[in-house]
Protein backbone atom coordinates (compact mmCIF):
# COMPACT_ATOMS: atom_id res chain seq x y z
CA UNK A 1 0.00 0.00 0.00
CA UNK A 2 1.38 3.41 -0.89
CA UNK A 3 1.43 6.23 1.58
CA UNK A 4 0.23 9.68 0.69
CA UNK A 5 1.69 12.70 2.44
CA UNK A 6 -0.26 15.89 2.84
CA UNK A 7 1.79 19.05 2.98
CA UNK A 8 0.35 22.24 4.36
CA UNK A 9 1.86 25.36 2.85
CA UNK A 10 3.55 26.72 5.93
CA UNK A 11 7.09 28.03 5.83
CA UNK A 12 9.52 29.50 8.30
CA UNK A 13 12.29 31.21 6.35
CA UNK A 14 14.97 33.19 8.14
CA UNK A 15 15.85 36.81 7.50
CA UNK A 16 19.17 37.36 5.82
CA UNK A 17 20.57 40.65 4.59
CA UNK A 18 21.66 38.92 1.35
CA UNK A 19 18.15 37.72 0.49
CA UNK A 20 15.94 40.75 0.85
CA UNK A 21 12.99 40.25 -1.48
CA UNK A 22 11.13 43.48 -0.84
CA UNK A 23 11.95 44.95 -4.25
CA UNK A 24 10.74 41.94 -6.26
CA UNK A 25 7.09 42.84 -6.67
CA UNK A 26 5.07 45.84 -7.70
CA UNK A 27 2.96 45.88 -4.50
CA UNK A 28 3.43 45.63 -0.77
CA UNK A 29 1.06 44.27 1.86
CA UNK A 30 -0.28 46.52 4.62
CA UNK A 31 -2.15 45.44 7.77
CA UNK A 32 -5.18 47.25 9.19
CA UNK A 33 -4.32 46.90 12.88
CA UNK A 34 -7.89 47.64 13.93
CA UNK A 35 -9.18 44.63 11.99
CA UNK A 36 -6.29 42.22 12.75
CA UNK A 37 -7.24 39.47 15.24
CA UNK A 38 -3.66 38.10 15.44
CA UNK A 39 -4.66 34.68 14.12
CA UNK A 40 -1.19 34.21 12.60
CA UNK A 41 -2.41 32.87 9.24
CA UNK A 42 -0.40 35.45 7.33
CA UNK A 43 2.73 34.61 9.34
CA UNK A 44 2.27 30.90 8.69
CA UNK A 45 1.70 31.13 4.96
CA UNK A 46 3.96 34.02 3.93
CA UNK A 47 6.75 32.49 1.83
CA UNK A 48 9.22 35.11 3.05
CA UNK A 49 10.19 36.23 6.56
CA UNK A 50 8.04 39.30 5.97
CA UNK A 51 5.26 39.12 8.58
CA UNK A 52 5.39 38.76 12.33
CA UNK A 53 3.03 39.26 15.23
CA UNK A 54 4.12 42.04 17.56
CA UNK A 55 2.69 43.61 20.70
CA UNK A 56 1.26 47.05 20.00
CA UNK A 57 -0.89 49.13 22.31
CA UNK A 58 -1.78 46.16 24.51
CA UNK A 59 -2.71 43.78 21.69
CA UNK A 60 -0.90 41.60 19.20
CA UNK A 61 -1.06 42.57 15.55
CA UNK A 62 0.59 41.45 12.34
CA UNK A 63 3.31 43.74 10.99
CA UNK A 64 4.78 43.53 7.49
CA UNK A 65 8.49 44.16 6.88
CA UNK A 66 8.67 45.69 3.40
CA UNK A 67 12.35 44.78 3.10
CA UNK A 68 11.10 41.20 2.62
CA UNK A 69 7.52 41.50 1.30
CA UNK A 70 7.57 40.46 -2.36
CA UNK A 71 3.93 41.31 -3.02
CA UNK A 72 2.70 37.76 -3.67
CA UNK A 73 -0.79 38.33 -2.18
CA UNK A 74 -0.73 35.10 -0.12
CA UNK A 75 -1.37 36.93 3.16
CA UNK A 76 -4.20 38.88 1.53
CA UNK A 77 -5.75 35.60 0.42
CA UNK A 78 -5.54 33.74 3.75
CA UNK A 79 -6.53 36.55 6.13
CA UNK A 80 -9.96 35.60 7.52
CA UNK A 81 -11.01 39.15 8.39
CA UNK A 82 -9.76 41.10 5.36
CA UNK A 83 -7.24 43.00 7.46
CA UNK A 84 -4.61 43.05 4.71
CA UNK A 85 -4.60 45.29 1.69
CA UNK A 86 -2.15 45.36 -1.19
CA UNK A 87 -0.88 48.70 -2.42
CA UNK A 88 1.07 49.49 -5.56
CA UNK A 89 4.51 50.87 -4.75
CA UNK A 90 4.94 54.57 -5.47
CA UNK A 91 7.51 53.93 -8.21
CA UNK A 92 4.93 51.88 -10.16
CA UNK A 93 2.10 54.40 -9.84
CA UNK A 94 1.33 56.32 -13.00
S1 LIG B 1 2.43 39.78 0.05
FE1 LIG B 1 3.47 37.78 0.15
S2 LIG B 1 5.56 38.28 0.80
FE2 LIG B 1 4.30 40.07 1.27
S3 LIG B 1 3.70 39.78 3.40
FE3 LIG B 1 2.06 38.95 2.10
S4 LIG B 1 2.54 36.76 1.91
FE4 LIG B 1 4.39 37.78 2.65
S1 LIG C 1 -4.15 36.77 8.81
FE1 LIG C 1 -5.16 38.76 9.09
S2 LIG C 1 -6.10 38.66 11.13
FE2 LIG C 1 -4.64 36.99 11.01
S3 LIG C 1 -2.75 37.85 11.89
FE3 LIG C 1 -2.64 38.17 9.68
S4 LIG C 1 -3.49 40.23 9.34
FE4 LIG C 1 -4.09 39.58 11.41
Automatic annotation (TrEMBL):
Its cofactor is [4Fe-4S] cluster. InterPro entries: 4Fe4S_Fe-S-bd (IPR017896), 4Fe4S_Fe_S_CS (IPR017900), PorD_KorD (IPR011898). GO terms for molecular function: 4 iron, 4 sulfur cluster binding; metal ion binding; pyruvate synthase activity. Residues 27-56, 60-89 form the 4Fe-4S ferredoxin-type domain. Pfam families: Fer4_21. Keywords: 4Fe-4S, Electron transport, Iron, Iron-sulfur, Metal-binding, Oxidoreductase, Pyruvate, Repeat, Transport. Its EC number is 1.2.7.1. Heterotetramer of one alpha, one beta, one delta and one gamma chain. This is 2-oxoacid:acceptor oxidoreductase, delta subunit, pyruvate/2-ketoisovalerate family. It comes from Geoglobus ahangari.
